[in-house]
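# nightly structure sweep
# worker-07 picked up a monomer target from the shared queue
# config: single-sequence mode, recycle default, output format = structure tokens
# input follows
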Amino acid sequence: MTERVVIMLLNANPDHPSTLGAPFFQACVAAAMDLDVQVHFATRTVQLLRKGYAAELFPGKDRSKSVYDFMREAHAAGARFYGCSQALQEFCIDGANAIPEFDGARGGAAFLGAALDDETLTLTY
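# output follows
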């Protein structure tokens, strides 16, 4: 039985915010189902962890709910947000300029270790 959901944001594109709502909605639902939820931000998606960045992105045309709103809901439900160590360094994101929901840096080994567990469902975007 699945006990953990690990979401990798690798190919989602901040230049196309319509790609960014679903991962956080699914993270929120999974956390509400009492699953352990980890969202790993890699490459350009780590920019979503910078204060103010995701608040300016809207996945829908009505612009009623920002990507950051989706992120906050997922985090409040229990999802944890981890940034790729190298990508965080590349985009100069650290504790001083990161959103309060940022749970820390993790490397590829942490993601793979979680993803390879038999009780883990892995989703990539």
